[in-house]
């Protein structure tokens, strides 16, 4: 006759299995979304997720459709992010250079509004800024850190991405030819 | 003389509200708040987010609000306005207590009760097994003789 298992070891095993399952779930949930890179590597251009956010420190809202027909350099940033300080003057220069043909669109997230406004003033940034208070839009783009930049073509498709600060080389290779 | 007394009275009355405000300020402390709010980027309560730049900015913002004599609730509201509801660390802080908020308290309590019951069950089983082992096996003749000798030697 087979001996029945004692309930204590069974309970311990169940708890251990549940903990391992919970750990696996946590790891899967925190896995960054790299769908954009995968699409670009496959030669596909996926449509940029829609954006509808309040303007930073101002009235009204802004969206990607406001810039349809122009190239958009979508830059996710925050005032506390150190690499954002180094790339901001570069983005400002390119925004001026693209005038009429394209724009830099800044998305400030996880930030204190007054700190963000001080940052804009300090670096003399003139490009439009939206505020992603909850980080919902950032998540939609798979943003896991600041800064991250997406180049969106005239038809609203993501054509390039930079995780980390952009540099002159990126702007020349990914932005300039599409203007 | 009367004028001087009136002047002093007015001066004292004018000073009273300021003194009262000074006494009530600050209404809260950074330490009191940082365990109840999140550092959204770090994904941990602000109190555990040591030196990340975002945490430092959030702390500086809270300290500015405390210096403005904001209460704990007012500080939390200001943080929600800046970072959204996810900045609140305590379940039920968002106002509408959902099932998840209740479960956060119920599940650990249930876990503790189940763990205590499991330990009690295991201890009872273990003691019963020991008792059974103690009464079940009779002493062999040799063991019995040795026990008698030992007891005599120690005068027990």
Reconstruct the topology from this structure.
The complex is a heterodimer of chains A (179) and B (156).
Chain A lengths: L6 H23 L5 H7 L10 E3 L6 E3 L7 E7 L4 H16 L4 E8 L3 H11 L5 E4 L3 H5 L7 E5 L5 E6 L4 H8 L4
Chain B lengths: L1 H23 L5 H5 L3 E2 L4 E2 L7 H15 L4 H12 L15 H38 L4 H13 L3
Antiparallel strand pairs in B: 1-2
Write down the domain tally of chain B.
Answer: 2
Per CATH, the architecture of chain A is: 3-Layer(aba) Sandwich
Radius of gyration of chain A: 22 Å
- How are the strands ordered across the major sheet of chain A? 5-4-3-6-7
Largest sheet of chain A: 5 strands, mixed
* Secondary structure category of chain A: alpha/beta
Given as residue ranges, the uncertain stretches of chain B (5+ residues, pLDDT < 50) are none
Largest sheet of chain B: 2 strands, antiparallel
Strand order of the largest sheet of chain B: 1-2
Quick structural summary:
The complex is a heterodimer of chains A (179) and B (156). Chain A has 179 residues and is of the alpha/beta class. Chain A has six helices and seven strands; from the N terminus they run ααβββαβαβαββα.
Overview features:
heterodimer, A: 179 residues, alpha/beta, Glutaredoxin, two-stranded antiparallel sheet, B: 156 residues, mainly alpha, 2 domains
How is this structure best described in words?
- The complex is a heterodimer of chains A (179) and B (156).
- The mean pLDDT of chain A is 90.
- In chain A, the strands form two sheets. Chain A has a five-stranded mixed β-sheet. A two-stranded antiparallel ribbon of chain A has the order 1-2.
- Chain A has helices at residues 7-29, 35-41, 82-97, 113-123, 136-140, 168-175, and strands at residues 52-54, 61-63, 71-77, 102-109, 129-132, 148-152, 158-163.
- Helix content of chain A is 39%, strand content 20%.
- Chain B is an all-alpha fold.
- Helix content of chain B is 68%, strand content 3%.
- Chain B contains six helices and two strands.
- Chain B has helices at residues 2-24, 30-34, 53-67, 72-83, 99-136, 141-153, and strands spanning 38-39, 44-45.
- In chain B, strands 1-2 form a two-stranded antiparallel ribbon.
- Chain B starts with a helix and ends with a helix.
- The model of chain B has no long low-confidence stretch (mean pLDDT 81).
- Classes of the chains: A alpha/beta (179), B mainly alpha (156).
- The interface between A and B is medium-sized, with 17 and 17 residues.
């Amino acid at each position: 006759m087979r001996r029945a298992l004692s309930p204590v070891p069974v309970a311990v095993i169940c708890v251990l299995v549940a903990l391992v399952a919970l750990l696996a779930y946590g790891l899967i949930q925190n896995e960054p979304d790299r769908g954009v890179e995968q699409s670009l590597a496959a030669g596909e251009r996926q449509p940029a997720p829609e954006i509808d956010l309040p303007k930073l420190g101002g009235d009204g809202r802004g969206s990607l459709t406001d810039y349809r027909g122009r190239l958009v350099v979508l830059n996710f940033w925050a005032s506390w992010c150190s690499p954002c300080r180094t790339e901001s003057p570069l983005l400002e220069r390119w925004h001026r250079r693209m005038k009429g043909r394209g724009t830099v669109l800044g998305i400030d997230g996880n930030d204190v509004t007054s700190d963000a406004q001080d940052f804009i003033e300090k670096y003399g940034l003139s490009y439009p800024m939206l505020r992603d208070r909850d980080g919902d839009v950032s998540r939609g783009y798979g943003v896991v850190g600041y800064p991250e930049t997406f180049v969106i073509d005239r038809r609203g498709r993501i054509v390039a991405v930079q995780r980390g600060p952009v540099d002159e080389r990126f702007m020349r290779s990914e932005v300039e030819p599409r203007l | 003389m009367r004028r001087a007394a009136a002047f002093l009275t007015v001066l004292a009355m004018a000073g009273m509200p300021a003194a009262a405000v000074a006494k009530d300020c600050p209404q809260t402390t950074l330490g009191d708040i940082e365990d109840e709010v999140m550092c959204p980027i770090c994904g941990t309560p602000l109190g555990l987010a040591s030196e990340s730049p975002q945490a430092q900015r959030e702390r500086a913002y809270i300290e500015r609000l405390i210096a403005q004599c904001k209460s704990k609730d007012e500080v939390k509201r200001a943080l929600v306005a800046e970072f959204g509801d996810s900045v609140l660390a305590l379940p039920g802080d968002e106002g509408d207590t959902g099932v998840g908020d209740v479960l956060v308290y119920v599940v650990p309590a249930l876990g503790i009760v189940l763990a205590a019951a499991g330990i009690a069950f295991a201890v009872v089983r273990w003691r019963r097994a020991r008792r059974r082992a103690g009464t079940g096996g009779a002493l062999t003749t040799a063991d019995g003789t040795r026990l008698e000798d030992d007891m005599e030697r120690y005068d027990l």
